[in-house]
Amino acid sequence: GSADGNCAAGFGVCCLITTNSCGSTISTNTSYIRNPNYPSSYTPSSTGSCTFTINKCASDICQLRIDFQTMSGFDETAGVCSDKLATAGQTGKQPPTVCGTMTGYHMYTEFGTTSTDTITLTLTYGSTTTAKTWNLLIRQISCDSTWKAPTDCVQYFTGSTGTIQSYNFAGAQLLQGMYYTNCIRTEAGYCGIQYKESTGQTPDTFDFFPDATNAEASAGGCPASFVYIPNLSSDGISALGIPTSTESFISVNCGGVLGLDGTATSLALTTRAKPFIVGVYTDTTTALTSPTTGFSLDYTQVPC
């Protein structure tokens, strides 16, 4: 590592561990994977891929958390990634492959149960004309840690309020091939959670295929892309009224707003189904023609 600032009231020096070399193996906790010449951007001279292998730093490690402190310039067209980042552990269930602008997001990957299980992180370059920047903070989490995410939660949020966004929402484009779950920790004294479209955000805070003005929330009405939040209604207890809503409770939503099927009004909707989750699905074949922005949802947990 390299010295980077002081610690222990000036008696020690912080050790910063970074790598930008393809094929590197990382066996230390709290490390950074950066592009060559970071913080300057990097334009690859040829297409190809760059792989890093992360070994467990201890036998009781279960998860790897990646914080995308910077990731931009990863090309996509209508949600199809030409430049991309993928991670893979040994459990057979992997997070989605991502691209676009990922700055500010995070991602959990499961290692597997044996001490020798590893995670591979692969950067693929499909474009040699776009300058890219990445600075990825990688941290390993023990199986009994209080901050471990529930198994197979790709993003994990804590606190009674917060904001959840689809990957590459900052790039204003929903990505193809998404199939993952965002999880929210149930805080003490709370029994429900309310979601609504974020305010003061750009781009459009809810836009899924089919690209329409109205909400689509009917059973089977979202075959190509949707957000899944189980058992939504006005309060999470009382069923939605028919014919105002085609469903007693809404679980799948797509279209142009988060709301009742066939309406153009965005609503604040609540669920009391636990655990609190926001699932994301997009298929691998439907063209997500711009603007198909994805979502930005604010959540507020509801007291018991």
Short précis:
This protein has no helices and 24 strands. With about 300 residues, the protein is mainly β.
Describe this structure in words.
The protein is mostly beta strands and 304 residues long. It has strands at residues 2-7, 12-16, 18-19, 25-26, 31-34, 48-55, 61-72, 76-77, 80-81, 84-88, 106-110, 118-125, 133-142, 155-157, 161-165, 179-184, 190-197, 206-207, 215-216, 225-232, 250-255, 269-271, 276-282, 294-303. The strands form 6 sheets. It has a 6-stranded mixed β-sheet, with no helix packed on it. A hairpin with a 2-residue loop joins β8 (76-77) and β9 (80-81). The radius of gyration is 21 Å and the shape is globular. 36% of the residues are buried. The mean pLDDT is 93.
Explain the layout of strands and helices.
Layout: E1 2-7, E2 12-16, E3 18-19, E4 25-26, E5 31-34, E6 48-55, E7 61-72, E8 76-77, E9 80-81, E10 84-88, E11 106-110, E12 118-125, E13 133-142, E14 155-157, E15 161-165, E16 179-184, E17 190-197, E18 206-207, E19 215-216, E20 225-232, E21 250-255, E22 269-271, E23 276-282, E24 294-303
Parallel strand pairs: 3-5, 4-6, 14-16
Antiparallel strand pairs: 1-2, 5-13, 6-12, 7-11, 7-13, 8-9, 10-12, 15-24, 16-23, 17-22, 17-24, 18-24, 19-21, 20-21, 20-23
Strand order of the largest sheet: 14-16-23-20-21-19
Given as residue ranges, the uncertain stretches (5+ residues, pLDDT < 50) are none
Helix content: under 10%
> What amount of the residues lies in strands?
35-45%
